[in-house]
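Following up on my earlier message about N-(iminomethyl)-L-glutamic acid. Here are the inputs again, as you asked, copied directly from the submission form:
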Amino acid sequence: MERLDLDMVILNAAELLTLEGASHTPKIKDNLNELGIIEKGGVAIRGNQILAVDSTKNIKRLVKPGSRPQIVDAKNKTVMPGFIDSHTHLAFAGSREHEFVQKIQGKSYMEILESGGGINVTVNATRKASKNTLVRLTQPTLSRMLEYGTTTVEGKSGYGLETNHEIKQLLALRDLNLIHPIEIVPTFMGAHVVPIKYKNKPDDYVKLVTEKMIPNVAKRGLAEFCDVFAEKGVFDIEQSRKILQAGKHHGLRPKVHADEMTTLGGAELAAEVGAVSADHLLKVSNQGIKSLAEKQIVAVLLPATALVLMKKEYAPARTLIKAGVPVALATDYNPNCMTESMQLVLTLACLNMRMTPAEAISAATINAAHAINRSHLVGSLEPNKQADILIMDVPNHAQIPYHFGVNLVHKVIKAGKVVFSTR
Ligand code: NIG
Ligand code: FE
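Thanks, got it. Here's what our run produced:
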């Protein structure tokens, strides 16, 4: 056996969740329950890469005599890939706790939005902030995400709604990506809402997005994806299609906020344009589910949003899984849904969408990696993948959603380096 010069070894994991074998195609159906568990498992790491994943005994044997890797003891703990939060709205200014109270008192999210609140409030605050202010305001958010186990996060613009302000938000994400250990995958979402100025001429705004913003963002390499809020009273299917096709034309892969409040056909549109994901889906139709399954488009479910919208019905996770749609989970972190915790999302997915703990973990790791085109790099613990690893302070994976409302993370390893540790 070849002995290896290693920088770090993780040993003695009670359960090591590899999530192996799904880097090429996402997990669907029964396979979502397969976590590739190694009991008493270990991981061998050099630089930022995983070299081997095996039993502790075999990992110990790999170490070259004389080499002194950092030893991380994971006794009684669960070792798993870092969470991938594949849907967030990052880098904004201001907060909206007043709307939290309005919602408690009975106002709906769409009522608040239509009366000029909601996203519009955050747009006003974000336009007033400089890029550096956005960076400063977002840093603690990213640190909280990392401490709660998120090692890769997707972040959307969409609180500028003017070319220069959209670009400012994306530049803030680019700067944050350079200074923070978490990896940020940027999405352009100029089509988040029709700005108040364009209220009576939404098609003019669509034109601005497709003819000015998208080419600009793409030319500067500031985003990988283009997202749109396809919703009754926001962007209709035809407008959404134009926006996503313009994005595609400029190399931005489509994503869709689909069928969240109303059954509009967002899932069908996602399938039609070959989106990388369709997100929300509380009101997805049977035809929409069929289309997503046929095209194997990742359904990113956001149960924390359903929680803050105080919905009785969550996205139909069981139906989606049964139909063979690859399901992922994300926080949807935004001023309406203020949580950085993928652990909370897992608990909500289990209790309110009846996903099993194993399904939820698959959805928050390897399938989430597929939702942001990173499955070749992260989302599972396999040789040649990036060493993005969590040591969770629980003896088995089911305790991750079961023990909730607290942070169960013991250590976070990002690209081979310990970036957070409880002691
Ligand atoms: O995904 N639905 C639209 N966009 C966000 C909310 C953004 C906001 O309220 O600021 C979402 O829930
Ligand atoms: Fe969202």
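One observation from looking it over: The mean pLDDT is 97. Hope that helps, and feel free to reply on this thread.
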